[in-house]
Write a sequence for this structure.
């Protein structure tokens, strides 16, 4: 079966207004699927939708909504009741930066809800219908930061680890029902907030793209973020080859290397990445 036969006719992309999510929606439309896109920014969703209709002749439904509240789940179920969603992709996240004691508990819980509560609720709805049809695909976007604790992102890193292990179990169980599941360990990508952050760092730490040293390689990857369309293509190309995948070999080198380290060393690695020195001029 080709992509459209196996994962069509509709894709549902959670977190699709910009960056990787918008690229995932576009790549699905390019592969012949109709798309439902969800995020908070309704104007951006509508603008992207118009482009997908024009470029690929895809049907696109936009669904503005906030995934940090479980109330959105019933809205999504109702809005997709009349269509066959053969591809469910979960890309949205909340990452409140700051030390655990400094981040408001409300923000910590938003991160937990969007990453660890709404994802399984939606997966249950879409996977139940896919299993009844005997086909479908689920893509979960986790992060290299799921591989260890670090600093500044206690709830985010933990939520991304939840997504990784949740995705692996779905891969194990749902494969028998004809559903492909793959979890993408995304590395650095140029979202607006991310780009502002990188511009403040000392570029001397971004030169180790070929280094065998994990810290140098991780920092270099950070300075050379993967274009979202490359990461989107990587997830879809590898959808039937789960349980996990990477956007490019440089991310895989760091991810697999970090997982092989003793825990304290893995935490130290990611902490040093987070604490990369700022530029002085
Ligand atoms: N960027 C990186 O360097 C990086 C690195 C590793 C992993 N990742 C992973 O890659 C994925 C995409 O990250 P990103 O940096 O491209 O963008 P992002 O800022 O995490 O946003 C991704 C999408 O989610 C939507 N979104 C955010 N909060 C939402 C909410 N409360 N309810 C509904 N939608 C919401 C955003 O649109 P609205 O603002 O319009 O809602 C956007 O469309 C995430 O899962 C992240 O963990 C990213």
């Amino acid at each position: 079966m080709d992509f459209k036969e196996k994962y069509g006719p509709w894709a549902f992309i959670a977190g699709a207004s910009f960056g990787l999510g918008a690229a995932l929606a576009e790549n699905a439309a390019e592969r012949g699927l109709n798309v439902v896109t969800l995020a908070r920014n309704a104007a951006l969703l509508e603008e992207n939708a118009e482009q997908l209709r024009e470029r690929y002749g895809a049907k696109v439904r936009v669904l503005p909504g906030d995934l940090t509240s479980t109330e959105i789940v019933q809205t999504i179920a109702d809005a997709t009741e009349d269509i066959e969603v053969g591809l469910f992709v979960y890309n949205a996240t909340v990452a409140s930066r700051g030390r655990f004691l400094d981040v408001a508990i409300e923000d910590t819980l938003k991160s937990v809800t969007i990453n660890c509560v709404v994802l399984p609720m939606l997966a249950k709805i879409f996977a139940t219908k896919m299993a009844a049809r005997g086909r479908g695909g689920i893509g979960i976007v986790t992060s290299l930061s799921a591989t260890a604790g670090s600093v500044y992102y206690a709830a985010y890193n933990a939520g991304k680890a939840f997504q990784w292990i949740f995705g692996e179990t779905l891969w194990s169980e749902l494969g028998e029902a004809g559903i492909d599941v793959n979890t993408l360990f995304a590395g650095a990508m140029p979202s607006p907030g991310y780009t502002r952050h990188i511009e403040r760092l000392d570029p001397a730490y971004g030169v180790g793209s070929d280094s065998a040293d994990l810290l140098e390689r991780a920092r270099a990857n950070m300075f050379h973020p993967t274009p979202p369309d490359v990461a989107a293509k990587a997830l879809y190309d590898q959808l039937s080859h789960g349980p996990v995948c990477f956007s490019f070999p440089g991310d895989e080198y760091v991810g697999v290397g970090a997982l092989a380290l003793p825990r304290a060393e893995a935490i130290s690695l990611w902490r040093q990445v987070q604490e990369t020195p700022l530029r002085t001029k």
